[in-house]
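Hi there, hope your week has been kind to you so far. Do you reckon you could talk me through the fold, stretch by stretch? Thanks so much in advance, here it is.
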Amino acid sequence: MHKTIKAILTCPVWVVQLFTGAKSFRDNPLIGSHRLNEMGLHVLRQSLAHRAAAWRRRRLKRGIPPHLVAEFDRDGFVVIRDFLPAAVFGRLLEEVRQYRGEARETIQGDTVTRRIALEPRVLARMPGVRQLLEKALLGRLIRLGGSRDCEPLYYIQTILPHAVTGVPDPQLQLHADTFHPTVKAWFTLTETAEEHGPFVYVPGSHRLNPARQAWEKRMSLEAARSEDRLSGRGSFRVDEEALAAMGYPAPRAVAVPANTLIVADTGGFHARGASEQPGIRVEIWAYERGNPFFVPLIDLWRIHALGRRRAGMVWSFHDWLEESGLGIHVWRKRANVGAFDRDVGGHAMLRIAPGLSSRFGQMTSHMFRRFARR
């Protein structure tokens, strides 16, 4: 009886999630169903999402230089060195170095990631950063990459490899973030040499082909029971042998100087390059991942004033979930910290289990399950 009530309460959530970006094979028994995926559910969702993204991108190419559009279409990412004039970049860099305020930190393996949300109150203290975010080309490229005409989430991000004792950083494994096109962007504030954890991407892997779809189907059949938790959560890990079998080229390490912009479709295979020694990488980082199938009639995040406040809203919402006992917020607060601080706090930061997610759709499923148990 208890299981029947639980299924009745949670099944509508699982069904609705099929029409969203929900990706976890472990949290949704429909997404993770061996029988449904044998019939092609995962491959169908992926194919429809890619077609929808291609349709939206045709309109979002306007105003972008043709050579950048061609580079993105071919490779799945674009790289623009010397994005800002040297003097402008120097002033922006000094603003970031001087800023201290609230940040969030998390640990994956032996790597600490710190983010400072670029909300209006933060940007008021960094006018050079605000001007960067208002550059039309930056916004257009990110919208093209994510196939969505809305304001992305912007942060100052610090990567500290080998900062703590732990297993290797799971982001070093080649992977796709999810089953559909989505975007991340990095504007580098520090040089990223090949031995210091550069961005790595498999050129052309943002495009589906029959061999890729066959691989995706095989992965979907076992993902719910996979020993790799991140693959089970819908971020499939891949090795170079499988890449070659899919017809993709070898991964390319994108080692770049400071003042470089990288925009990538992280539905393609990518990774964080290995860093030989403890170090620091600082960048202005952008991210956007919305519903891959539908564009809402009213998208509040297209409103500039709301879009710039979204990062803080998301963090506050997950703080509330944790305080309510409905989940764990993987990003822990830290006060009075700067982007270039190498100190990782000396405070009791939560060590996150690999694959633990705080995505709203998965949290919603967890909330219904907890309610059903009561």
Notes: Confidence is low (pLDDT under 50) at residues 352-374. The two ends are 13 Å apart (CA to CA). DSSP finds 14 helices and eleven strands in the chain. Residues 2-373 form a domain with the Jelly Rolls fold (CATH 2.60.120.620).
